[in-house]
Write a structure and sequence with these properties.
2 copies of one chain form a homodimer. By secondary structure, chain A is an alpha/beta fold. Chain A has 19 helices and 24 strands. In chain A, α1 packs across α11, α4 runs parallel beside α5 and α9 crosses α11.
Chain lengths: ~625, ~625
């Protein structure tokens, strides 16, 4: 499948956008007119740069308000178009997007529009240009693709075809199935955009909230399947207007975009299994997804070894050993939970979750899939005889490793730490319940797409949690059997609060245990100061859940928090924060499926008071 | 009018919110339950703090899902309520907000709801509490205030009344006029929130996009007038759920909120002129607004005197003189434009627009109005015999001075610079055309309210301008005769681009002139390097406007930009940026009313290339 991206999706200069698109692996770009207008590079220089980068200039866009106008205006439009055709000749671009008229349309007559498109087509043909007519969702007279197609058919000109944009079709609720009836040679271009289902006016929705395929709620596989069945074999291009993308680093946006297309391509190929049509668009398959069965390890990188190991010990971990060749790396174990502590950093480096190891069936396949999805592999060295760890960087820089499922017992790499014991069956802690990762707000969609496409984690309904410095969006990603739960916390933009945000929205590792009371008592005995929970909270708890006062007093004694849903109960406590990481210990009773979200404001407020204390 | 604010409007801890509300001048607050739950302060401590701060605890909120439920659930609700009544007794709060049921409503029967509210009222009465029942816009069975009122009337209990919230009424398009028919003693509480007219679902609209009265599109004066006519005399309280407010500094949000109420109070009082009802709510008037007739001066504060005065000279300014007592202050003049250059800062201080002087009829009245609107006065010293300058800080920290209109000739303060000459009638530059001020995105609403309420500038329709690092919202504020034009530019949040944003979205002073070609030639002669405009722009200009090529060549020779609307033409050029300021020189031909917005992307791209050059 030929992949393309409109320059309007990306931040920076036209030249920066082109470099980023090429580096991410796109085959071509759409040149957005304004990006060229504000560039000091001549069209010939852009053409040469594209050639050097191996990028096609697949489309020039947009040409607006061409048709449905009175004759004198149409004459002016022809003149305006001719200047653009000459420019396109200098660029070496042969397809121009013509949007249905929104500003100057006066004549609501298909014959007139077709005739004007025909005459524009004559002029285009003189310059070797083809016109791709697109029905904007808010076009004055033409706002659906079937209407645009009828006009193009009426125009009956070799140089006049259509452009199909998933947003303009799906946002209006038009049925995309009739695409299959369109003659393939009349589809000159295809643009893809996904979007969350928002109840707002379609123009604002389109201008600000489009996302890459797979990041929204539209059926993009279904849409592309219709195009495949129609026999389309041209570029499939991303055209995304999104406020966050406009501000984000151009290289990561480009990578995010290419990932979305590769994933869509793979899913569409699978959806069309057995249909010969899919060969026409040359849909490529990805290696199969290898859903993780659990956490193999968590790596904490810290400049403060003493504080970190003290906290681990307080939580019940024992030192498993030191790595045989990596001098500053040790492992702490408790039951099936393994925390690698990496002290190979400066003393003042922040304490952070540096890496996650996921148990998968076949690490090689998982890595292959991830790199095909444009994830960057983690460079790693090992001594002869040591385990090879395969991993990639997540969008936030966390290293994601694919580790072979150990079957019974402990993973082989523990041997490198001299830690070859069996699992302790009596351990209070029985696993990693979840790991909460903080994400910058402008990379939220990218993170969700990464974990969905690379690890087949599914996004659960998102929730807003109020904190003292703004709303925090909590987006849980989960494997199908819930063995892996990964809540992503998206902190507010918070220009004002500056560095405080990092400390107020730290990441955390939540440990599952069978007896949180015993775990809390042990932690207290070992000197751990739990995050304090206010008296008011416990009074509210009694009122809210009609709980027994003695039970609540027992919670309060240990700073335990409580939640309940229809299927069970949730008891948990938090530690203080080291750098940007803290720990939580949770006990699920019955089938409780949540994460104690009603208690998150208590935690956020307590953390805020610790980092920001005045008043 | 008694002013109140819900703690949910503000960021920080409950204690911080209370301090900020008191400091801004509110009479009371609504205690949002969750703010109390997460606080380590006991209810008695909050009560004492409120007393110390002179704040009333006007409302406890919210109590949810009380009514329209089956008997067994209602029994649990009574128990839940009693715990809250006891808590309110400890707080010393006597009114509780009861929202119409959204989660557990099962019985759609007014009699049942009334009977349950009556029984809840009995229990409340035992604790000296009153219940204010509010129809949420998305209530399951009760979503309009008239329905809520009918149920309250049916309940017929001294301790059961209503709470009227402008958002819940106006967002649904309910006619607020029937408020006047409600018995005043049954209106227990009033909450005000304004909102921009957005086409989205009402729950998201309410939770994220409420703004203070005067910052949105609702008719708040009309709404408050109905309450006044009903005879309401209780607190008027702000309840605003807004993502930006949640993140903003708590003190400035509180000030913004109080300003909105004071301004609303004044406008409502004027709207009700002659109606005796207004005395019941004790609506206070503000001093009359003094609309500015022009710019008296612009003050640039800079650590780089040489660069700044060189640029001013290149633009045609002459040194008017040095201040007699302020050693590091000089004035540069050109026709009626006066730029005060203040060098009384460190050498590495950024060059910035520090102050604006506006010509008004009566500076004392203007200052009095501004301070009554919670603006902080600028502290200033002067020697005996020197002019007293009266001013306040705008939300972004710019000093806004109110200067007496000089009639003919030059203002008296110029004498302090030894510059008592007459105006130069032959000056190319004829005034300040506009001043473009950069605003952090989270204070956009606050800035608009400030300039509207203090200086009677009116907000024009906002526009989004695409730049290489995101969309910039351009919000023009304008006096009624356009003598003062103040576009506010709201830069994207742009966490990623960091410090670059300050340089990429600088402020600017635009000078009006009668001959921009002559001004550009003079500037070139004096060595000014104008902001470069790409060749592609001029080629596009010819295509877009069908302009004469020779004319466009003459523009290009001088890096002039061009725009046209139905009423005239606009020619302009930009200088490079000093610190966070640059200059623009504009010539308006005919009745052109805009600001060259289509050319802003060219400028943003050129500035981006200068500060961020790679590729």
């Amino acid at each position: 499948m030929r992949t393309s991206i409109a320059t309007v999706c990306l931040s920076g200069t036209l030249e920066e956008k082109m470099h980023a698109a090429a580096a991410a692996g796109f085959d071509g770009i759409e040149v957005f007119e304004q990006d060229l207008v504000v560039s000091p590079s001549a069209p010939e220089q852009i053409r040469d740069l594209a050639a050097d980068l191996g990028l096609g200039l697949d489309l020039y866009q947009p040409f607006r308000d061409a048709e449905a106008v009175r004759p004198e205006r149409f004459a002016a439009n022809l003149k305006r178009a001719e200047a653009k055709f000459r420019l396109m000749n200098r660029l070496g671009t042969t397809t121009m997007l013509v949007c249905s008229n929104v500003a100057t349309a006066e004549i609501d007559d298909d014959e007139v529009m077709a005739e004007q498109l025909h005459r524009l087509g004559d002029l285009a043909a003189d310059h070797g240009v083809r016109l791709a007519y697109e029905a904007l969702a808010w076009g004055t007279f033409v706002d659906d693709f079937e209407h645009a197609q009828r006009i193009v058919d009426l125009a009956d000109h070799q140089h006049v075809g259509t452009c199909l944009d998933s947003f303009h079709i799906l946002s209006r609720g038009w049925d995309p199935a009739p695409i299959e009836a369109v003659a393939a040679e009349k589809i000159f271009f295809v643009q893809l955009a996904d979007a969350p289902l928002l109840h707002m006016d379609v123009l604002s929705w389109s201008r600000h909230h489009r996302v890459f395929p797979g990041e929204g709620d539209f059926d993009m596989v279904g849409f592309l399947s219709h195009l495949v069945r129609a026999g389309y074999d041209g570029p499939v291009s991303l055209e995304i207007f999104n406020d966050a993308f406009r501000q984000a680093d151009v290289h990561r946006t480009a990578v995010d975009g290419l990932r979305s297309l590769r994933w869509l391509e793979d899913r569409t190929r699978r959806a069309l299994a057995g249909e010969p049509a899919r060969d026409r668009l040359q849909l490529q398959a990805l290696p199969p997804v290898d859903e993780p069965g659990g956490y193999d390890f968590v790596e904490i990188r810290t400049g403060r070894l003493g504080e970190t190991t003290r906290l681990l010990h307080q939580l019940g971990f024992a030192l498993g050993g030191h790595h045989q060749s990596k001098e500053h790396v040790q492992v702490w174990v408790q039951g099936p939970v393994r925390i690698v502590v990496n002290n190979d950093v400066a003393h003042d480096a922040p304490t952070e979750v540096a890496a996650l190891g996921f148990e998968v069936a076949d690490p090689d396949t998982a890595l292959e899939r991830a790199t095909r999805l444009a994830a960057r592999p983690v460079p790693r060295t090992q001594e002869p005889g040591e385990q090879v760890l395969r991993g990639v960087f997540a969008p936030d820089g966390t290293e994601i490793f694919f580790c072979r499922r150990p079957g019974h017992g402990v993973p082989a790499w523990l041997g490198e730490f001299g830690a070859d014991e069996e699992l302790d069956p009596a351990s209070l802690v029985t696993g990693v319940d979840h790991i909460n990762m903080a994400q910058p707000w402008q990379h939220y969609d990218e993170a969700v797409l990464f974990y969905t496409s690379v690890l087949a984690l599914a996004a659960q309904p998102a929730q807003d949690v109020p904190g003292p410095s703004g709303l925090v969006r909590s987006q849980v990603m989960r494997s199908s059997d819930a063995a892996v739960r990964l809540p992503l916390n998206v902190a507010p933009a918070a220009a004002e609060q500056g560095s405080f945000v990092g400390a107020a929205y730290p990441e955390h590792v939540a440990l599952a245990c069978t007896d949180v009371v015993a775990a809390a008592r042990r932690a207290r005995r070992r000197g751990l100061e739990l995050l304090p929970v206010p008296q008011n909270y416990y009074e509210d708890l009694i009122a809210r859940f009609d709980l027994d006062e003695a039970f609540v007093a027992s919670l309060q004694e240990l700073d335990l928090l409580y939640d309940r849903d229809a299927d069970g109960e949730f008891l948990h406590f938090y530690t203080g924060t080291l750098g940007t990481v803290f720990f939580e210990v949770v006990e699920r009773r019955g089938g409780y499926a949540g994460f104690g979200a009603p208690n998150a404001p208590v935690r956020l407020a307590a953390q805020y008071r610790r980092t920001h204390a005045h008043g």
